[in-house]
Amino acid sequence: MDDETLLKLFDQHVRRDCRCVGRQVERLDRVTRVTGPGASPSENFIVWSDLDESNTDQEIEMHQAYFQKLGHSCEWYVYEHDQPKDLLDRLTNHGFVIDSEETLVICKSSEIKPVQSPHNVLIRKLDHPRDIPDSLHVSDLVWGTRYHDFVTRWLTNLVKDHPEDSTVLVAYDRDRPVGTSWAIHWRGSPFASLFGGTVLPEWRGQGIYRAMVAARATVAAATGNEWCAVDAGSESFPILKRLGFQPLTKRTSLCWENEKR
Known about the structure:
Blueprint: H1 3-16, E1 24-27, E2 31-35, E3 45-49, H2 56-70, E4 74-79, H3 87-93, E5 97-108, E6 121-125, H4 132-143, H5 148-161, E7 166-173, E8 176-184, E9 191-199, H6 208-223, E10 227-232, H7 236-242, E11 246-256
Parallel strand pairs: 3-4, 9-10
Antiparallel strand pairs: 1-2, 2-3, 4-11, 5-10, 5-11, 6-7, 7-8, 8-9
């Protein structure tokens, strides 16, 4: 399958027909808009858009007004092929600020070979919400508490309400959590989305991240998701590339902070 066809498939299944646990998803005429229970940009975002030069500014202002009325901030995901070509500039002109730049990489789930975790490290799937603090412990140590409330709600919803469509992993050195990651692999979708690959600094470079990617890919293949997709940052990109992932496009996340929040 060529890159253009894959990109169209990704746009349709992951972006346009986005499914988000614990959040409201609206497939509007020109955008797919997600609204969360919390006010942070991580929970409120535009994940897909189909705009042109004549309607972009009006759409941006309309969604800013929508989130402002709720008292929420929001995020807008812009992929390299999104139109119009100056979408990034138009968003920044309306007060959006670039938060992160990542590379969308994909690989066939069945082609990601198993990776042995280091000696004494056990990678375990979380099956109950009571174990989620182990995942949060790692995330908070690495990223701070910026995402704590959002990730708590997200993982709780996944483990409690969607155990067949998700995998939340924690890597343990004996009883100590040293790494975490999760994946959503909706049945019937060509793509499994891999998130949150995080390892404590002193445990990096030993294969834990790779082992968690491979473990999630195995589940995705068994579920029927042909492809694994990751929005890769600069640190994870070379690791994923060695595992067989190939870049498909770039993604820029822009945040708009609601002054009334």
